Amino acid sequence: MSFLNKIFSRQKILYSTVAYIVATVIVIIIIFPHGGKFIYEYKAGSPWKYENLIAKNSFPINKQPSEIKHEKDSIYKNYTQYYIYDFKAKEDAINNFTVDFDIKAQEIIFSDSVKSLNKKFVQSSLNALKKEIIFLINEMYNGGIVESVYNDQINNNQNISIIKNKIVEKHSNSTLLTQKDAYYKINELFNNFRIESNIPTPEIQIEKYTKPNIIFDKKTTDNEISQQISQISPARGMVQAGEAVIYKGELITPEKFRILESYRQEFLIRGNNSFTKYGLFLGEFILFSMFIGILFLYIYFFNNEILKSNRQILFILVIMMLPITMFAFFLKYKILNIYLIPEIILPIITVTFYKPRLALVHHTITLFIISFFVENSFEYIVVQFIAGFAAISWLTELNSRSQILKTTLITFLSYIISYTAFTLIHSGQLYEIDIQVFVWFAANSVFVLMAYPLIYLFERIFGFISDVTLIELSNSNKPLLRQLAEKAPGTFQHSVQVANIAEAAVREIGGNSLLVRTGALYHDIGKLKNPAFFTENQLSGKNPHDNIDPLLSAEIILNHITYGVEIAKKYNIPKEIIDFIVTHQGTGKVSWFLNSYRQKHPDAEINDELFRYPGPKPYSKETAVLLMCDSLEAASRSLKDHSREAIDTLVENIVNYKFSEKQFDNADLTFNEITKVKAVIKEKLKNIYHTRIEYPK
Known about the structure:
It is a single chain. By secondary structure, the protein is mainly α. It folds into 3 domains: 2-36 and 273-426, no CATH class; 75-229, no CATH class; 467-688, Hypothetical protein af1432. The protein has 26 helices and 10 strands. The protein has helices at residues 2-31, 65-78, 88-109, 119-143, 150-153, 179-197, 218-230, 254-270, 274-302, 310-333, 345-353, 356-371, 377-394, 401-427, 435-447, 451-462, 467-473, 479-487, 489-508, 513-522, 550-570, 575-583, 591-600, 621-636, 644-660, 671-688, and strands spanning 53-54, 59-62, 81-85, 145-146, 159-164, 167-172, 177-178, 214-216, 235-239, 244-246. Strands 6-5-3-8 form a 4-stranded mixed sheet. A two-stranded antiparallel sheet has the order 1-10. It is elongated, with a radius of gyration of 45 Å.
C-alpha cells in the first residue's frame, strides 16, 4: 500500500509540474511580441560568417532612421506657410482711425493750448496729418500686415501662400509687416508732425489700426506638412528575388548592414501570416517548454524537496517571470536599451533562498528564454551570464547589507569588461565602444539595490527566510533571546553552546550553517514556561521534580516543545525556526522519568507514549544535526571524566542510540555526513572541556 501511495504522490507531483510548465510557457508566449526569429546574428564591420544569403523574395532597402529624419527636418525647414487674407481689416482700420482722429482733433482745436494759434491753421495741419496717416495705413494693408505668429513660423527668405477667396497666391514676405512694425510707422508720423508743426497730436490707440489682415492658417499648413511627410519613401532601392544579399566572408559595410536589416524586417513581416503564426506558436511552445523542463529536471535531481511545495514552485516561476515581463514591456514599447533592465536581480534573489547552483541554472534558463527575443542574443547571453555568475559567487551567503553594495560594483565591472571584450572582437578598436551603453550598465547595476527590499517582500509573501533575517534573529539582544538569558540563563548558555557546535558541524557537510545556528538559539525557548524544572537552570541544587510524580514531570518536560511553538508564534518567529523547536527531540523518550515511574509503579500498566516527544522527526540536515548536538551537549555536562576517550564514547553511543531509534530516517543525511558531524562534535566538546593548568595560590 505504501508503494502505491508513493507512486500516486509522484504522479501528483508530475501532473502539477507539467501544469506549471504549460501555464508559464503560455504566459511567456502571450506577453512577448509575436514574429519569427531571424536566425542570423551580425554586426557592422564584421565579416559575414554564414553561407551565401540569397533573397527568397523581393524586398525594399529601407532607409536609415537618420536619413528619414533628415528629410523630415528639411520639410520642417522649408515647408510652405499658408495665410488667409482678411479683406475687411483695411476698411475697418481706416474707418475707425478717421472717427477717432476727428474727435480728438476737435478737442485739440478748442483746447486752451492752441488759443494763441490760428485755429484754421491747426485744423488744416491736422487734416493733412490725417490724410497722410490714412495713406500710410492703406499702403501697409496693401503690402500686408501679418499676425505675430509670423515671427515663429516663417524665415525672412521664405515665400508664403495667401488664400484670397479660396484662391492660393504665392507671395514674397519682403513686403509684409508685423503689427509692431506698422505701429512704429504710424507713431513716427505723429512724432514728426509734433516736432515740425509744434501742434499737439491726437491721443489715440494706434494698435487699433494695425490689426493684421494676413492671418496664419495653421490647419492648412499642418495638412501640407503631413502630406509632404507621408510622401517620404521609407525605402531606397530594391533587392530582387534570387539576388545575393551577401556572400560568405564578405565584410558587412554600412550599406550591406542596411540591406541585411531590410531583409530581416521583411522576414519578420512575412512571418506574420496566419499559417506561420500557428507554426510559430507551436515552435515557441516546444522550445520554451524544453527550457523550463530542463530547470524542473535539475530541481528534481538536486533539489526535489522544492517540487513537494506549490509555494516554492510558484516562487521559482514568479521571479523568473519578473525579468521576462520587464523585457517584454521594454521590447513592445521600445523603451531605452535592454541592458538597462536589471535581470541580474533574479539570481541574487534566488541565491538568497536556495543554493548557488540552482541560482545559476535558474539564471541561465531565463537568459535563454529572453535571448530568443533580443538582437545579438549570443552577446547578450554571455554578458549577462558573466555578470550573474559574479553576483552569485559573491552572494553565496548574504549576511550583510554591504554585500549588496559591493555586488553592484562587481556587476558593473563584469558588464563593462565583457562588453569591451566583445567590442574588441568585433572591431578591434577601443574607440568603437559605445559609451552610452556604459551608462545603461551603470543604471542597471544601481538597480541591483532593489534586490534588498524585494528579498524582504518575497520573504513575507512566500514565507521564506533569508540570511539577513537569520542574522537579525540570532542577535542576542532580540527580546525573546534576552528574556531567555534573564529567566533561564542555564538554558541560554546551553543554546549558545549547541549553536556553536551545530554551526561548525553543518558547515562541514555543506548545509545552511546560519539557519542551524539561529534554530539552535531558539530551540529551547519553551523552557521559559517552567525554567526551574530543567537541570541547567537549577543553580541552587534544588530539584522540583523530587516532589512530584514522574508522569507529571515527564509532561512538563515534554510540553516545552508545545510552549516553545506558542511563544515563537507570539513573537512572529519564522516557520523555518519553529521547525527546529518541534524536531530537536524527534520522537525520543524522556527515559529518566519513564524509569522512575516504573520504579514507583511496578504493577501499573505503562503507556510509553506518555513519555515520548510528539515529534516530528528531523527532516533536513540542519534539524538532524541540531538533534545530535542538543543531546550530546546536554549529556556531556553529566560526564565526570572529560577525557578524549570518554567524549568519543559518549558521542558514538548517543548517535548510535538515536540512529537505532530511527530519528534520522526522514533527514537527507548520508553515513559519510554523519561521520563528519560526529568528528566535529567530538572536537568541539574536547575544546570545551580541555584540561587547564593549575594556577598557584
